[in-house]
Design brief:
Strand content: 15-25%
CATH architecture of the largest domain: 3-Layer(aba) Sandwich
CATH superfamily of the largest domain: P-loop containing nucleotide triphosphate hydrolases
Number of domains: 2
Oligomer: single chain
Strand order of the largest sheet: 8-9-10-7-11
Distance between the termini: 36 Å
Low-confidence stretches: none
Number of strands: 11
Shape: globular
CATH topology of the largest domain: Rossmann fold
Structural class: alpha/beta
Radius of gyration: 20 Å
Length: 281
Amino acid sequence: MSCSLCAGKGYIRKEIDGYDTVIPCNCSQKTKLTELFWKAGIPTRYWDQTLQSASPLSANPFEIPFKYRKWALSDPSEDRRKPFKPWDGTPKKKDQKTFHSQFHALKKCRDLLQCYMDHFLEDKVLEEVSGMLIMGTVGIGKTHLLCALLGDLIYAGITDVYFTEMTDLMKKLHFSYNKQAHTTEEEVLGPLVSAKVLVLDDLGSFSSANQQWILNTLGYILNKRYSFNKPTLISTNYFDSPDQGDTTLTDCLGTRLRSRLRETCPEIIMKGYDFREYGPK
């Protein structure tokens, strides 16, 4: 069945400032956005999430600045995505630590979103330290925030972004070495190296078997992106201090890689309740 607005043409006519203007129909915009989200590897459960919140009742209202709207792939008035809301616990189990932790991380993600739009849409110089490493307990919202940031970039017209979860990446690489595989190692790693903004989710979630090969691969990705000053956003359940867990991030990555991340990805610490356990069901 064709679209009731454009009859399958993909565009409609709309009067803007007194002029009869041809604009993309919402149906073609949604199709294009769907394709871009698939290509970026963003999990479908986060496609309707955003860092934006126009409500004056929000703890920290934020909208993509008007000057960037000309690049937007969707009419802001038609945007029905759900804003990320810092969570303070249940009525019976309040926790301001969780709220302030998420609020701080949300603000940092919004700052980076602004920074990336300035760079990729207006060619402003990107600071050398333009990435981020979110170190946090499970279920605190790390992946949610990073996926919402990538989604906002796509909606803003910055489409060459990429998301990958570390375990999934390792499986794809292992499979690429199979003689019957239709994908090569170069094709797997290519998007991670070339993306304007890359998210590496769940860093450290790999087995000790073949660990050196994994670290070499990770080092290759990070060094390539470092050489071309491309932002990398990372999440991990591991911390630096031994008293926060039996295994530290340095134990997982080694001293050299941990040092590289300190240079390019400043840390954000997130602590609090596991939303998957205590949040609304």
